């Protein structure tokens, strides 16, 4: 026996795959996409993050960077204003314009008339309410 034989199960998620996975996540891939890109199951990195503190920290940092990269890829407009909280001039203007158009559309749909709602006392519940005393 000249070469040392490895016992047990072969290493599935070695340092090279870990680095590739962390780089893919930091590049903007979602966790499942990054796992498929590296060629492993999506559960493997999560399990390694539980036992390896260094990998868990690297993965948390990569997640933050990846989220920023994905957010930066979203074009400026009403969607970015509403969903991502972007308050730049472009997003604010787009959101204001879209809201104004929807308001004008609503008044056109009702024929410019206000819809009267019954007063609170005029509505009776469909069942008798028991009085607690």
Keywords for this entry:
133 residues, mainly alpha
Largest sheet: none
- Which range does the strand content fall in? under 5%
User: What would you report as the Rg, rounded to the nearest angstrom?
Assistant: 28 Å
- Please tally the β strands and state the result: 0
Overall pLDDT metric: 85
Low-pLDDT parts are: none
The secondary structure category is mainly alpha
Query: Element order, helices and strands?
Result: HHHHHH
- First and last CA, distance: 90 Å
What is the share of helical residues?
Answer: 55-70%
Describe the structure.
By secondary structure, this protein is an all-alpha fold. Helix content is 59%, strand content 0%. It is elongated, with a radius of gyration of 28 Å. The model has no long low-confidence stretch (mean pLDDT 85).
Short description:
The protein is an all-alpha fold and 133 residues long. Helix content is 59%, strand content 0%. The chain has helices at 15-26, 31-38, 43-51, 53-73, 78-84, 89-109.
SSE blueprint and pairings:
Elements: H1 15-26, H2 31-38, H3 43-51, H4 53-73, H5 78-84, H6 89-109
